[in-house]
Amino acid sequence: METIAKLSNKEKTIAVLKSIETGDKKAISYINPNKYTQHNLSVADGLAGFGALLQLAPADGFKVKTIRAFQDGDYVFTQTVYDFFGPKVGFDVFRFENGLIVEHWDNLIEVAAANPSKHTQTDGTTSNTDLDKTEANKTLVSNFVNDILVNGKMEKLQGYFNGDHYIQHNPNIADGLSGLGQAIEAMAKQGIRMEYNTVHKVLGEGNFVLTISEGKFANKPTSYYDLFRVEDGKIAEHWDVVETITPETDRKNTNGKFNFPN
Length: 262
Description:
Blueprint: H1 2-6, H2 9-22, H3 25-28, E1 37-38, H4 46-54, E2 63-72, E3 75-83, E4 87-97, E5 100-110, H5 134-150, E6 167-168, H6 176-189, E7 194-205, E8 208-217, E9 220-231, E10 234-244
Parallel strand pairs: 1-5, 6-10
Antiparallel strand pairs: 2-3, 3-4, 4-5, 7-8, 8-9, 9-10
């Protein structure tokens, strides 16, 4: 336990994710064996479910590379590239109690080609700055998601950005508000609607803020994980993972996709 205490929760999280590749048993000891609630609906609950997942690894194993990691109170959230039944990119959220992981949420999607502005789903700034502005940045991003994405108050859109300077990592959308507008227009022509109904969690550290929301995409129940980088009080960069929520008949646990503690 002495070694565990010396590691930050962020370091423990990165080690646990890497253990999916390495099978490192020491890292797995950072998960509470008696209390581990799983919100990935395709994985069985508890530490046994995590172990069963590792047993499914192909002969050459899984591959895991964490790109960004942040801590907000008892939560650590990460952005990671996996070779996990095929190349995938995902966000993971872990909740800690007494130095051990007790709960996990995530969103995963297949790796896609670079977007129209030549950005990938994970490239861009990784430097974590402005730690003294964490709460202000969380409020800004929360207001943006609620105003624009949930409530459609498009007259407020310009106020959240520095002109058209906005770096976009969504694989289907180009940079800038102009790129966002073009993508929304193109989806509308195809009869595709992107709906945000509820923001379930806002987590942040410094200039990075993650929002976890529920809604529909093309009329399918959808989980939205959106990571924003804030610069000088404006949204400057965006990464996301949009995942269709697993139907109840196919779920391996009953914990729900969201259900964050108050």
